[in-house]
């Protein structure tokens, strides 16, 4: 545990920092998203409850919370928000609907499950959690299948946005073609595509295509943590001597990476932690600049073996 505190792979200097130190990015007209989110998957939170983890994050100044419908964690997040006393307008809440479930189902789910469970009257960002109908295909083994279902679901999200119930719409685990479907059909790109993304797992083709489309790339398993192992993806240990060396060069215990200038990280990232010290480190990771040489070094730590396609 002591050794794991040394690093944090997050991002970003050179962008206007919000008052809590985590900068925002604009993901849609008039919608600013804090670049670091707290994820609520129970596997990532070993020694605390979801409610306690979220409350701690809010208490330390974190403002972006990310949860999905299907882990059953929306009620915990709702309780944490309420207990925190942080005004709704300061919080950025992302939730996800379980795949391409169709227009009426998504409207019902947001109005009758997500909003009541979270105790909120609007959501900042809603993502289609994965592009395929079956969880066996998670995160993305369905390619062009279920195109109609994905687009129908998007149409439901557009209605919710028109009703003022959600501010921005995005996707998760989509490939380039699946993002292009949305643009072709609706003339608008997803605000966000949240994908697995860390030092040992990043796909530059996807990154360039998202940049071109105007879709912010958000990293899950940004530290190569528990969920990366869950999907048997390669990972680089936070104890890796090459990472320690870079951190030492900056005399930092946390290692930030500029998210907006071609670095290993995406435009935004998510992590999860029960540790107060780690949470403080994560939230403070936006305070120094890496040299282009070190950015390059970190970008090229990818294992030489083929990526594990999951
Ligand atoms: N959209 C999708 O399809 C999808 C799929 C999978 C996962 N996710 C989401 O991604 C979120 C994060 O996944 P992940 O757990 O793999 O994330 P991660 O950020 O790669 O790893 C989190 C782990 O890192 C440790 N940690 C956090 N800050 C640290 C620091 N400063 N120094 C050292 N260690 C630190 C935490 O342990 P300690 O508690 O010991 O600090 C935690 O176990 C989940 O909540 C999940 O909801 C999304
Ligand atoms: C990277 O993403 C592109 C575009 O979605 C995809 O065609 C390619 O197969 C991906 N590469 C790997 C190694 O996953
Ligand atoms: C490195 O950081 C430590 C702890 O913050 C501080 O005491 C020390 O003066 C720093 N060293 C340099 C060379 O900046
Ligand atoms: C981070 O990115 C911004 C925007 O591209 C840039 O202005 C800034 O200099 C970068 N900082 C680092 C550490 O590279």
Overall pLDDT score: 85
Shape: globular
Head-to-tail CA distance between termini: 29 Å
CATH class: Alpha Beta
**Ligand kinds:** NADP nicotinamide-adenine-dinucleotide phosphate, 2-acetamido-2-deoxy-beta-D-glucopyranose
- The structure class reads alpha/beta
Strand order of the largest sheet: 3-4-5-6-7-8-9-10
Describe the structure.
This protein has 310 residues and is of the alpha/beta class. It has one domain: TIM Barrel (Alpha-Beta Barrel). The chain is 34% helix and 16% strand. The protein has an eight-stranded parallel barrel with strand order 3-4-5-6-7-8-9-10, surrounded by four helices. Strands 1-2 form a two-stranded antiparallel sheet. The chain starts with 23 loop residues before the first strand and ends in an 11-residue tail after the last helix. Mean pLDDT is 85; it is low at 1-19, 254-263 and 305-310. Bound molecules: NADP nicotinamide-adenine-dinucleotide phosphate and 2-acetamido-2-deoxy-beta-D-glucopyranose (3 copies). The site of one 2-acetamido-2-deoxy-beta-D-glucopyranose has 7 residues, from helix 6.
